[in-house]
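This protein record is not my work; I was only asked to verify it. Would you go through it and say whether the fold makes sense for this chain? Here is the record exactly as it was handed to me.
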Amino acid sequence: MPELKRLHAGHAPAVLAFELANRAYFAASVSDRGDDFFDQFTDRYNASLAEQEAGICAFYVLVAEDGSVLGRFNLYDLEDGIARLGYRVAERVAGRGVATAAVRELCRLAVVRHGLRTLRAATSHHNAASQRVLTKAGFVPVGPADPADLGGKPGTWYQHDLVLQP
């Protein structure tokens, strides 16, 4: 059973393998990270860990039983009980409810670990899979997203007002 784990230094090789293996798949629905992302992966990864340590962001990976990364689920700009959500899942598990389950779990963690009350996420109009994940996880559309936030693509902001479930 895959497990959502807080990102740490030891995940770096599996995260890089995940990003490389799924690069073309991701580029079909979201902006490609570009060669610089991969050329400077170690520096960027370490900067992300520093942001997490500072409490600015919280990064999670969905780890399979074999240690491979099946997805990344991130909370950005944690401030005043609000954060932005970003995520991506491996092509080999797409369409199986994996992303929805992980987003739901991250919503729970956002409350209990990070004291958040609201999550926001933007997705492009053509990314129907992401729209389904957000809707199934309890997010509702709240308005248009600036194309600059979505690699030049028009889209929608979604929001989830979190409630701790008993």
In short: The beta strands are 3-6, 58-63, 69-79, 82-89, 118-124, 140-145, 155-161.
